[in-house]
Amino acid sequence: MTTMRLRGGGFCWIASYPKSGNTWMRLALAGLLAGGARHDFARPLAFAPFAADRAEVERALDLESSDFTMAECADLRALAAVELAREAEATLYRRVHEAWEYTPSGRALFPPEATLASLYMVRDPRDVAVSYAHHTGIPVDAAILALGDPANTWAIRPGGIGAAFPQHLSTWSGHVESWLAATPTPLVLRYEDMRDDPAGCLAQVAAHLRIAASDAVITATVAATRFDVLRQGEAERGFFNGQVAGQAFFRRGVAGAWRDELTRDQVARIERDHGAVMSRMGYL
C-alpha cells in the first residue's frame, strides 16, 4: 500500500533506470505544478535536480566530501536527505537514476523518514538498450551488456571528484525490483502507458502527490509535453541533458522502436537476461 507522510517538507524521488522517461516525467510534473505551462527551451531544465548532487550534500552537512570513501559518501547522502527534509517547508523534487538500496552501513540511501512520495518510471528494456546506446554513444551490444551488469555505476571518475556522487544502477532487472520493493511504495508508471494515455497517467501522478491539478491543467500539460513539441523545442533552442555531443536528446520517443533497431540475437539476449521482470511488467 502506498504511504505518504503528511507534512510540509520532504522528498519526492522521481526515479527510473536511465532512458526510461525520467526527463519526460520531470517536464510533465513541472507543467502540472505551473498550471500546464510549457518548458522554456531557452533555459536549462532546473526542476528536480539530481539526488546525487555533491554540492547539495556538502552544504547540508557543512563538510567537504572529497576525503570520504564511496561507502562513506553513501552514508553522507542518507544523512543529508534527512537533514534537508527536516528543514524543508515544501516538497523537494529530485531526479534519481540509481537503484533503491541500503548503504554499506545499513542506512536506506533514500530514507523513508525523509520521503514524502516516489514516482518510478519503467520502460521496455529492449527500447532502453537502443536509447541508452544513442545517449551514451556506445554500440548497442555494449548497452545490452550494461543493462545486464550488476556493477553498472554512473559518474565514476578515476582519480577525480565529479559534481555528482557515483550512482549504482545495478542491472535493469535489479533496478526495477529494487524500486518495486522500496519504502514507501512508489507510484509505478510504464513509459508505454504514458504514451498511450498521458492524461490518465498524469491524473494518477497528481493524485499520488496530492497536487490540485484540474482537468484543464492536465490537458494543458499533456499538450505542452507532446513529443513533437519537445523535439521542436530542442531543434530550435537546444537541450542538453547528458547526451553525447551531436546526439539529439528527444530522438524518437516511441514504444516498440526496438523492433526495427535490434537484431534477433540482441532481442534474445535482452529477453534471456531480463525475461522474468519483463513478464512481471507486462513486456512479454
UniProtKB/TrEMBL annotation:
Keywords: Transferase. The keyword Transferase applies. Pfam families: Sulfotransfer_1. One of its GO terms (molecular function) is sulfotransferase activity. Residues 13-281 form the Sulfotransferase domain. The keyword Transferase applies. Belongs to the sulfotransferase 1 family. This is Sulfotransferase domain-containing protein.
